[in-house]
């Protein structure tokens, strides 16, 4: 017979398991986002360009609200660092997470 583990050890094992599960979920979402982007690129590359341009317009709208000349400086910096493409990746991650949650929802444990 196995001796019972202390409650502290059980709590740490549960916390480690949850962190590993969340990390795996985020990693799978990132891989899924890359897969979505590659699939969209193979299907129609102009779709990605249009999405990045729409993200750039959104960035322009938000940065235009900044005081003084900060808007144009921030916009230039974001364009240099490719923020419109980064937002595209974030959108891909969000879509991948929604898809994964949609598949996992029927198998989710019910809260008591």
Q: Return Rg in Å.
A: 21 Å
User: How helical, in percent, are the residues?
Assistant: over 70%
Mean pLDDT: 80
Question: Which assembly state applies to the chains in this document?
Answer: single chain
Q: First CA to last CA: what distance? A: 30 Å
Shape: elongated
Number of domains: 1
Decide which structural class fits the backbone. Answer: mainly alpha
Could you spell the SSE succession in H and E letters? Answer: HHHH
Report what the structure shows.
This protein has one domain (7-107). It is mostly helical and 112 residues long. It is 79% helix and 0% strand. It has helices at 7-43, 45-63, 70-80, 83-104. Helix 2 packs across helix 4 (83-104). It is built from four helices and no strands. The mean pLDDT is 80.
Summarize the model shown.
Helix content is 79%, strand content 0%. The protein has 112 residues and is mainly α.
Relevant terms:
112 residues
Topology:
Blueprint: H1 7-43, H2 45-63, H3 70-80, H4 83-104
């Amino acid at each position: 017979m196995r001796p019972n583990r202390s409650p502290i050890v059980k709590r740490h094992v549960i916390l480690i398991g949850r962190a590993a599960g969340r990390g795996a979920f985020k990693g799978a979402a990132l891989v899924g986002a890359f897969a979505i982007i590659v699939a969209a690129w193979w299907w129609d590359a102009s779709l990605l360009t249009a999405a990045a341009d729409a993200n750039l317009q959104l960035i322009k709208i938000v940065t235009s609200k900044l005081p003084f000349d900060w808007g144009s400086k921030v916009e230039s910096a974001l364009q240099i660092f490719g923020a419109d493409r980064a937002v595209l990746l974030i959108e891909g991650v969000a879509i991948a997470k929604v898809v994964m949650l949609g598949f996992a929802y029927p198998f989710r444990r019910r809260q008591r």
